[in-house]
Specification:
Blueprint: H1 3-26, H2 30-46, H3 48-62, H4 66-72, H5 76-90, E1 99-104, E2 110-114
Antiparallel strand pairs: 1-2
Helix pairs in contact: 2-5
Length: 115
C-alpha cells in the first residue's frame, strides 16, 4: 500500500470513528458532556510532559522556522491555556435542545425551531 493510500485509509477510519462518536455524544446530557470536558482538561494537564516531548519531535521533523514554527511550538504555558480553554467551555450554556423560536399557527399547530 502506498503512503498516500495508507494516509487516506487512516483518515477514513478516523472520520468514521468521529461520526460514530458524534452520534453517541448527541445523546449525552449536559452533565455528561461537562464531565467529559473536565476529564479532557485534566488529561491535557496530566500528560503535559508527553505532549511537550511529542511536539518537540514534530518541530524537529518539520524543519519549519519563524512564525510557522512558533505556531506549532507548544510550551507549558500554552498547554495550560489549552486546558483552561476547555474548562471555559464548561461555563457556557449547553446549546443542544435550545428553543430558538416558537409560534402557534391559527389552526393550533405549535411550531418550534430547536438547536
Amino acid at each position: 500500500m502506498s503512503g498516500a493510500t495508507a494516509v487516506a485509509g487512516s483518515t477514513r477510519l478516523k472520520l468514521e470513528s468521529a461520526k460514530r462518536a458524534s452520534a453517541l455524544l448527541a445523546g449525552f446530557s449536559s452533565a455528561q458532556k461537562n464531565q467529559a470536558l473536565a476529564a479532557m482538561a485534566d488529561v491535557i494537564e496530566a500528560n503535559q510532559a508527553n505532549i511537550l516531548r511529542a511536539n518537540q519531535e514534530d518541530i524537529v521533523r518539520s524543519n519549519l522556522a519563524g512564525a510557522m514554527r512558533d505556531r506549532l511550538l507548544l510550551t507549558p504555558a500554552r498547554i495550560s491555556a489549552m486546558a483552561a480553554s476547555v474548562r471555559d467551555v464548561l461555563a457556557l450554556p449547553d446549546p443542544v435542545n435550545e428553543i430558538l423560536e416558537q409560534w402557534t399557527r391559527p389552526n393550533g399547530l405549535r411550531i418550534r425551531k430547536v438547536r
